[in-house]
Design goal:
Blueprint lengths: L6 E4 L3 H10 L4 E3 L5 H6 L7 E4 L9 E4 L2 E5 L4 H5 L2 H4 L3 H8 L4 H6 L2 H7 L6 H7 L3 E6 L2 E6 H4 E3 L2 E2 L6 E7 L6 E9 L6 E12 L2 E10 L7 E2 L1 H7 L6 H8 L16 H19 L3
Parallel strand pairs: 1-3, 2-3
Antiparallel strand pairs: 4-5, 5-10, 6-7, 6-10, 8-9, 11-12, 12-13, 13-14
């Protein structure tokens, strides 16, 4: 299907993009376009104006800050997975990024666009939650920073307010002895997650001192932090037996997704399986 007619403007700065949004309330931000354009073709979204922010220099960078890494929202998936600073610190980001779409999608699609779209089966949200990332946004009322755990609020629904755009993602410095991974059972055609699990684990002297587990694809409400699984690991030996016991509680109480790819029962089973795989990887087992 062909989209309805739409105007197009390329913003030269973040402030210009915010002004254009304020002047055109039904406009949409265009970065990589891999989520927005298909929605427009299906007439699920028919903005009067597309505001292109993909070439704003202040939105495309990756830099080390205080041992962590700041990523500009217009950085592509390829920018992220090919960056040495991210490769050396955040395994979950590399593994999640490498599993997104195909080469074309990874070369053009952006981190900011993906998380602002908040597809409940997208890969980045789980990785960002597990890594305790924060998301910086800017709008007509100024800038603010939102923890990833508070950014993803539901089905294609985020904490972004009217007129705001994502400008940056901040990954905190990883703790000594920590490791993160991402594991996914994917739909083979779209490569979206039927179940995806990101895990970050800190080990000291063979004991798990901190653990964060997040899922995507599991819940109809989108990515979420599984606090019960993480809590069940802390203070325990980093062993397969510990992981097995903790993973059995995966997705308890979640509003499970159900579609023609997987029933609720199957997704619950996969959540346990992929929690075990992610945690085993994060523990180096």
């Amino acid at each position: 299907m062909i989209p309805q007619a739409v105007d197009y403007k390329r913003a030269g700065s973040v402030s210009e993009a915010i002004s254009l949004l304020a002047e055109n309330p039904d406009a949409k931000i265009l970065a990589g376009g891999h989520s927005l354009i298909p929605a427009m073709k299906l007439r699920l979204n028919s903005p009067s104006l597309l505001i292109d922010i993909a070439r704003i220099p202040e939105l495309r960078y990756i830099e080390v800050r205080d041992g962590g890494v700041a990523i500009g929202a217009a950085s592509t998936h390829h920018d992220i997975i090919s960056n040495a600073d991210i490769q050396s610190r955040y395994g979950a980001m590399i593994e999640a990024g490498e599993l997104i779409g195909d080469t074309q999608v990874r070369n053009v699609g952006t981190l900011g666009g993906s998380i602002a779209h908040a597809d409940p089966s997208a890969d980045w949200p789980a990785a960002l939650i597990a890594l305790n990332a924060s998301i910086k946004v800017e709008g007509p009322n100024g800038a603010r920073e939102i923890p990833a755990t508070e950014f993803f609020l539901g089905f294609f629904y985020t904490a972004l307010e009217e007129g705001e755009i994502v400008t940056e993602v901040v990954l905190p410095a990883p703790a000594a002895g920590s490791r993160s991974v991402y594991r996914k059972f994917m739909q083979p055609a779209s490569r979206f997650a039927i179940v995806g699990c990101a895990a970050s684990v800190t080990i000291d002297g063979g004991t798990i001192t901190d653990a964060t587990v997040a899922f995507t694809g599991v819940s109809a409400d989108g990515a979420f932090l599984d606090e019960a699984v993480g809590a069940a690991l802390v203070g325990k030996a980093a062993s397969l037996e510990t992981i097995e016991a903790a993973a059995n509680a995966a997705a308890e109480g979640a509003e499970l997704n159900e579609d023609h790819y997987a029933s609720k029962t199957y997704r619950k089973h996969l959540a346990k399986v992929y929690a075990k795989r992610a945690l085993a990887g994060a523990c180096g087992l």
